[in-house]
Amino acid sequence: MADSTYRALRADAARNRDQLIAVATRVLMATENGPSMRAIAREAGVGIGTLYRHFPTRESLVDAVYRDQVVRLTTSARELLAKLPPPAALRRWMNLFGDWIATKNGMLDTLLTMIESGAIAHGDTQAELHAAINQLLDAGRATSEFRQDISEEDIAASLIGIFTVAPLPEHETMANRLLDILMNGIRTAP
């Protein structure tokens, strides 16, 4: 096999994997019961064999989706701060956090089993998310737009509470209102 053909296949395989993760994320966000692997493959436009080559078990797919979402959340804090002032960056990041929570709802049973077995280190994820929140808070404190006494734990707990009471996508209006109230509490008084 020529070297360029090998690279093309590898690029194609990477695209298939990325497509499977994107589709699984979208499908998991839209359902409370985990969809079938066959339905995910069909929606991604690949055969079931391709899905199983990349993700031999439901757990391996859930793990990939979960890790992809955590990476997106943690890197987006820096990316948002590069484009937006701290309050707008934090508010936009809160929406991404809500999407992450909604995605987790469709894979909750599998995810909980994986956390209990130690396959996913929940403490590591929590530390990564707290670091992202702290980065956003520090930027707002540096510009005197955020209160000094708000911690990343305060924000994380508030977000979990909001998205538990107003899960996405069905309660998006209520979630947005609650997020705006939270943002008002974070900001320094004018």
From TrEMBL:
Residues of the DNA-binding region: 36-55
Entry-linked SUPFAM superfamilies: Homeodomain-like, Tetracyclin repressor-like, C-terminal domain
Answer whether the UniProt record assigns the keyword Transferase to this protein: no
Q: Where is the HTH tetR-type domain?
A: 14-73
InterPro entries in the cross-refs: Homeodomain-like_sf (IPR009057), HTH-type_TetR-like_transc_reg (IPR050109), HTH_TetR (IPR001647), Tet_transcr_reg_TetR-rel_C_sf (IPR036271), TetR_SbtR-like_C (IPR049445)
Q: Name one Pfam family in it.
A: TetR_N
Protein's UniProt keywords contain DNA repair: no
Note the PROSITE patterns from the entry.
HTH_TETR_2
Keywords assigned: DNA-binding, Transcription, Transcription regulation
Q: What is this protein called?
A: TetR/AcrR family transcriptional regulator
